[in-house]
Amino acid sequence: MFIFLVIVVLTALAFDFTNGFHDTANAMATSIATKALSPKAAVTLCAVLNLVGAFLSVEVALTVTTAVIRIQTSTGGVRPELVTDGGFNILLILLAGLAGAIIWNVLTWLWGLPSSSSHALFGGLVGATIAGLGFNEVKWFGEGASLGGVVGKVAIPALLSPLIAVIVSAIGTRLVFAITNGVNQYYRETGFRWGQIGTASLVSLSHGTNDAQKTMGIVTLALIASGHWDDLHSIPFWVKLACALAIAAGTYIGGWRIIRTMGHGLVEISSPQGMAAEASSAAVILASSQLGFALSTTHVATGSIMGTGIGIGAKVRWSVAGKMLFAWLTTFPAAGLIGALMYLIGNAIGGPVGAFTVFGLLGAIACGFYVISRRNRISSANVNEEWKEDA
Question: Among residues 50, 39, 57, 62, which one has the least CA distance to residue 17?
Answer without folding.
Answer: 50
